[in-house]
Here is the input.
Amino acid sequence: MATTALGHPLLSPWPWVVVPAGCTHQDPSDCGSSRGGLFYSNESTTWDDAGLYALETELNLGYNGNGDFGFDTLTLGYPGSGALVVEHQILAGIAAKDFYIATWGIAPRPTNLTELWNSTESLMYTLKESLQIPSLSFGYTAGAKYRLKEVLASLTLGGYDASRFVSSDILFDFGPDNSRDLLVGLQSITYDISEGSRSLGGSLLSQPILSCIDSTVSHIWLPLDVCQAFERVFGLIYDPLSELYLVNDSLHESLLAQNPSFTFRIATDDTSSKTVNITLPYASFDQLVTTAYPNVTNSSSYFPIRRATNDSQYTLGRVFLQESYLVADYERSQFSINQCVFTENTTENIQTISALATSNTTSSTPVSEPLSLSRRLIALEVVLPVISTLLFGTIFLFVYRRRRRRRDQQAASVAVAEIAEGLAVERAGNELYGDTELTGELHGEQSPTSELYGLPKIRGELQGTIGAHEIMDELNVHELSV
Here is the structure.
């Protein structure tokens, strides 16, 4: 049996785990641990390999990679803790550094690896059908390390934590593209600077745009002219090699002194009068990039906005979700975005979102009901640590596995792989490094990708450190907490 860490929620149907091919001799010695630990499928007797397929995630942002897909048994917590167990769950082993850390797949869509009529259900759907969560829904905020005593990220499956936000009372309908279904109208971005007795402010967004809220990526992707407006107002300097806005020490001190805040006005479309304001302090944008990021030679502060080349790239990533709480209801194809609140010693207020068949409300807040032990339906809340650089959270995914029998052994032995220590191994002759024609995982189309790393790109997610957590089972609410 072994553990590997899962990071932020991914808007795909299946979890991703990092395989040994993701760390080579050219990577730092702590590559394995910085990526959340490595998953060794060759040591598992329950692993059922399905082959290499293109990930086909975030292609619009230029991200790229392939996955070694297969099935295994997952325990969402420590064994023996009463944690949820899912058998024969589809996983993707990744090596490409565009997606740096393992992720938790929360989209309820089925996966078609080879045939459109032969689909595999998602982890979320399996949890609902086995009555382990009440509905295909979730609540999520990325956490804020700079708030209070480092506020943890929070992911609730089958409901949301009402203690985390002030309700906006606005419901958004899902967009038509299921890869960018959490689509909102971004009507304005304004800034406010208070220096002593002076107060300055202005607008940064020249015209409304449609933008996707996406927890898979860390940055905020904006039109070029908007990024240039940030440059003019705050003195940001664009680094064309890393494609990031690196911040040197003097600029960093200036930004800290100005301490600007940024307000994003969000609506159901780019013209609606029903809006919600999400305000982010400068601390949300005060991030660190390390040399693990492509084409970054020295660790540096950076400002996490990215230049979009077209409107399909307009994205509000986890930077935005530090100060906002997302509630997504796949039963009704609706979601809400709300301003987070940060209060010391707040008691959780987990609200269940019921399945569509049991819903008869038209409230602007997703329908909820008290947790009921008799129904044996739970809201699964996962409280995640925040990594300072990338706002990654961590869930521990326990994959039942035993080492294959050695020829001189009469009985199988159970090996505990020390993934938490980041053991990175390279296996000679590994097929993941070979040139391969891979099949797109959802549509069954041929994709001319070369290997598990996919086509080389310079974009990537950033690394962070992983914290350990334990599961607490109280009142039928499963919580991961430090």
About this structure: The first helix runs from residue 31 to 34. The helical segments are 31-34, 123-129, 224-234, 249-258.
